[in-house]
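Dear support,

I submitted the protein below through the web form. The confirmation email said the job was done, but the results page showed an empty box. After a refresh the structure appeared. I'm attaching both so you can tell me whether what I see now is the final result or a partial one.
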Amino acid sequence: MGSLESALPLKRESLLRSSSAGRSERYPFLLRPRSRFSRFLLSKKLDYLQWICTVAVFLFFVVLFQMFLPGSVIEKSQDSRKQLDMVYGDLLYLKDMGTLDFGEDIKLEPSKLMEKFQKEAREVNLSSSFNRTQHRFGYRKPQLALVFADLLVDPQQLLMVTVATALQEIGYTTQVFSLEDGPAHDIWKSIGVPVTIFQSNHRMEIAVDWLIYDGILVNSLETKVVFSCFMQEPFKSIPLIWTIHERTLAVRSRQYTVNGQIELVNDWKRVFNRATVVVFPNLVLPIMYSAFDAGNYYVIPGSPAQAWEADDVVALYKDNVRLKMGYGPDDVVITIVGSQFLYRGLWLEHALILQALLPLFSDIPFGDNSNFHLKIIVLSGNSSSNYSVAVEAIAVNLHYPRGAVKHIAIDGDAGSMLNAADIVVYGSFHEEQSFPEILIKAMCIGKPIIAPDLHMIRKYVDDRVNGFLFPKENIRVLTQIVLQVISNGKLSPLARNIASVGKGTAKNLMVAETVEGYASLLEKVIRLPSEVALPKAFVQIPAKLKEEWCWHRFGAFLNLTYEDRTLRSSGFLVKVEEQWNHTQRESSGSITSNDESFSYEIWKEEKDNQIFNARKRREEEELKDRSDQPHGTWEEVYRGAKRADRTRNDLHERDEGELERTGQPLCIYEPYFGEGTWSFLHLSSLYRGIGLSTKGRRPRTDDVDGPSRLPLLNNPYYRDTLGEYGAFFAIANRIDRIHKNAWVGFQSWRATARKASLSRTAEKALLDAIQTRRHGDTLYFWVRMDMDPRNPLQQDFWSFCDAINAGNCKSAFSEAFRSMYGVGQDLDYLPPMPDDGDTWSVMLSWALPTRSFLEFVMFSRMFVDALDAQMYEEHHQSGHCYLSLSKDKHCYSRALELLINVWAYHSARQMVYVNPETGLMQEQHKMKSRRGKMWVKWFSYATLKSMDEDLAEEADSDHPKKRWLWPSTGEVVWQGVFEKERNLRNRRKEKRKQQSKDKLHRMRRKRHQKVIGKYVKPPPEEIENSNSTMLKSLFL
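What the results page shows now:
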């Protein structure tokens, strides 16, 4: 198993952790330790003539071969890469591995991932070091979700069915989700796994509460559309294992970079980064996907793909390939294959293998013609290289008959080439971490294989049982084996029997490694809550489930033709690219249109602002001119004026839902956090959302912004720790500014996801009971504790609370109550919650009178403050609290979920269960049965109000400097606050009066200039007389 650690260029230094890593740094060139293959050449006593021939080959062609080495060919074939086929272009990635020496091992280690697992294991051990004992109750099994792009019958479905069957055996429960239906639907149902098909629409909304599942296994690249859910809150932290078998994205990613589609590459990087672990079935794929590596790559070897395709290959080609290659039915074809990694010196390994096969031609008569019965195919490289010339040069130098040795590139269909062979020889001496896939394919086709006794090959191949092995130190044995395999120009009976046995072996090769690999990985990745039972260890998986793939469940579909997964994946990537290009064109078009209409938009915006301001001034003038003023005291007028000032800037038009909600007796708030919850929220006027974060609020809705109502929610620590309780505090904080209804309700989005929310019928029944005051001051709830999936055994209240809080719920409640009420530490202060056959409320879905809700919030604020005081230091620093077995940011939110029951029971409130489907109501824990069991004195309004005022006085008067949560959870109100406000108003009033007196005084004392004289206007008669006199004088 292995992984890459960073997305680096595909070079040996960055991708391989080989046995020779760092040799050049630690030793000078002359003192550098020799590789295994070099030591084998120098230390072993090889045949003298063989060694001489090998050295001659090396010395004679060293200059000639240098120009044909894979490392050199890579530089020469840059222009021809674009011409390669899309599917088989993946070999270009492996050509950059051109610096391996002889005998070096290829090893990929997930060092970062393993460090992460070890760190989490240490943290789990630290959590067990609390002073309190933590317990696991195991009331339910761990649940896994398997997500597929479709349910077509293919090797990936076979693999996951086999893995899921083993996981169920050790204690997991699974559920399958798919974007499209298919024949595999019935297969999953046959093993007892429920299947859900997502409803396809243009928006592709996936409404699933993924928090139900302890882990998610996603398969194939085509499930990318589902990742939009997992990349949003509240599903970001769910462990996710993504299995990738396709190579198409790795091939296309280089073209994305060349074409400048960087955003498309970054989008895929974000998807790879979201996965907790990305699993590959072989070592080649993580190297190909190195551009997307986020340090989370992991290799679980094994896949039934080669065995699945083998029968199709045999039936499809038969003898057609041999005829096309010019081989007759009597010819014996030996195919030399090797590692998928290309490296310098590959030609030398091929030269050694060809040297060992050369004696075979001495037993076969041939003349001057080129029609020989023995043919050798070297299957390696790709069509863009000139390695064929090197192979021909080696054959000529070894005096092979002309045309006997032929090089064929494997960037085409390797299956057809193997089907044309009679014998397959593995010619690589590199140790790899997994069994070579090309040998699996050859064995599945039914070809006898001959391979060196490398550790990974020797693990699955028994010499002369299901294959032939030769020591890599003595290549002469290869010649002897081939002579035994070929008898009278045909395969010997021994070879046919061994090939038949090898076919059965390859059909179920590495099943145990695959099954145990997934089970072991789940143990490392998943952290189970205290109410979940631990599964059995992967070593306890029954042996029969690790012996073979579940072929018997796919027997009816093996003969059916199915669409190739590579083609489907390529088609999906084409759609993604087209969508991305369309988005880019739209964005570029919008930029152009924005540039052209920039000045017009500025002018239009300025004109709209002027019209709005003019309208606002006109309305204000009209309001000032109105003569009929409201009657009331000066205090009411003052409050109304202040309220008008506060709402003056909030001029948004009220929508229909808000207007309808105003006349209703009840408003149900739905707290949510993140876009992943939007599909579970209601849009009717009875409901109103409240976002716990400003970022994830729904657009074009009148949802309440929780952080603006309660600044404490801007703190991510308390937003996560309080959970939906933060919405209670946000609504209660100055509730008259936002809530105008007589009753208030809350409903968790998770209740809607589990189909436990109120139906239309239940809503009408609840509203009718409220309007008619059928039950008075009552707590109505509609999600029962005895029906909760976390409580399959229907435990009593405190037992259930302990089960979901690591066995420490009762002690946490007891300490919190002692802290609240100042009771001695030596007393067991826990309110009784009797098991009388009735049920309790869970999932924070209930309704209360608004006044009772405020009383409950008053009690809850003190309780939360007491919990926070005892848990904050440890939880904030390390992320661990004694209410959880593992690191958990939602420390005491599960304990708060049940607090409403304690308060309602002991404050003598009626508790009525409303059936969410039918609306039928049933009273729980009737008052008669509560007598003598309620702590009314401690939960009465007078007691709680007195405690609240004491805390408010302390916060307002003393201004404590220590960290204190209570003042941040709501209003700080006591009698002194009203007196302070009254005194402040009086001081401001006296100040204004004094300022007026001072102004009048200054005006009176101001020195004025004395009047020099006054003009007295003459009477009208004198004016007329004077005018007539003037006229007479003029005429005279």
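Response: this is the final, complete result; the empty box was a page-load delay. The chain has 42 helices and 23 strands.
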